[in-house]
Amino acid sequence: MNFSRTLWASVAIISACASLATAADEPFKAEITARKAVMQVSKFNIGMLAAMVKGKAPYDVETAQNAAYNLHLAALMKNGPMWPKGSGLDNPELVDKTAAKPEIWSTFPKVSEKHKVWTESTEALTKVAGNGLAELKTALGSVGKSCKGCHDDFRKKKK
Ligand code: HEC
């Protein structure tokens, strides 16, 4: 009984140390994970809409409106704290952890202009996503361009 309690207490302490060590080894881990998650949420929702436009999924008014809404919400989040200076590719410790180019910070506020286009295009999408495939397609095209517009300048290309 006592032995087992002591054992589990030690395991807990060892695990706590292990997670502290990981946090120290990987700077900005939480921030990078969070901002990638926002991007993945965007990808998921734009993917549903793209499937409808391509005829791979049936067009459904409510599903389209909801996905458009989610895309807009992702753009609206006040995510400054997920993008601290030094958490980009200028940090040698992060070369395998992030695709965020140093220009995000060195040319600031250019990235905010890209963010504005993203916010505006997703807002426009929410207004027409329920109006049928033709309107959805046009508005979705603008959203896709807003993603690409930022990625071209501020995200390192995949090899
Ligand atoms: C204002 C700039 C900006 C806009 C707009 C933007 N992104 Fe990104 N995105 C980035 C940056 C920078 C990264 C790299 C983040 C990192 O690796 O730390 C990224 C990464 C990603 C990733 C990879 C995430 C991962 O898990 O590594 C996906 C997917 C993505 N974006 C999708 C989108 C989609 C879809 C849109 C539009 C609906 C969009 N992004 C709009 C800047 C932007």
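^ heme C complex. Residues 14-19 have pLDDT under 50 and may be disordered. Residues 32, 35-36, 39-40, 42-43, 46, 71, 98-100, 111, 114-115, 118, 143, 146-147, 150-151, 154-155 surround heme C (CB under 6 Å).
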